[in-house]
Amino acid sequence: MTTRAQAASAAAGVLAKPTIPASTAAGLPDDVPLAQLVWDEILGPGDYAARVLSRGSRLRLENLEGDGCIQLLAFNADQTAERLNIADTVKVQWQAYLSAGALLLSDMGRVLLTFETDTCGHHDTFCGASSQRRNGPKYGSGANHGPYPNARDRFALALAKHGLGKRDIGGNVNLFKGVRVEGDGALTFLESSSAPGDVVVLRAEMNVLVVLANTPHVLDPRSSYVATPVRLCAWRGPVTAADDPIRTSTPERQRAFENVEDHYAR
Description:
Blueprint: H1 4-11, E1 37-43, E2 48-53, E3 58-63, E4 70-76, H2 86-93, E5 103-105, E6 111-118, H3 132-139, H4 151-160, E7 173-175, E8 178-181, E9 187-190, E10 198-204, E11 208-214, E12 230-235, H5 251-264
Antiparallel strand pairs: 1-12, 2-11, 3-10, 3-12, 4-7, 4-11, 5-6, 6-10, 8-9
């Protein structure tokens, strides 16, 4: 079923389905290797996607108009009981505000994804994903197949295609929308977090299942449902080298990479 938000994206000329084959994608930067491309898609407002990416792959996300908000979950694609752990991601790296060089850690102490490139620098690890209960009063509807779908229900649809369900929805990262923690513990939404054309490139350190939804941030104060298109593309690439500068930047990150290698050595 197509939501009103998705229909609006189509009317505006936004690609709402993957390019098949991905190697025929157009309009990507020169440094994206088309011969290795495995995914090209644009997520409009309310859209969602899920994809398994092999170890070493790169996932590029471009905030085309500057007002997208990508909620992201990540799982070990081979053993989905292992998944993104936001608390460990923050505390192990002593870094609540993610940016280039940061790792997304699993609940097994392994690296799922690395922020290889980040021109935005504002991503939220505190607020989680929107729900029907929250979207309903704010927008007049929050139903999954209504005009203003919420992120948690979008996640559920994507996860069902991989044998997972609502109970597998844990903490997520909100890309391109920042939140600041004040001295009294209050959370301040940073309204101008991202600019048109901002890019994040995530490097897959394991075989990962990534699940994405493009819906407004839960603290976005606007009464209108605003989530502008974000372009996704992914390509196969080399596994991270032993002397990679991100890997060797701290003892904690070094150990997380060693845990990955131990996992694949079994």
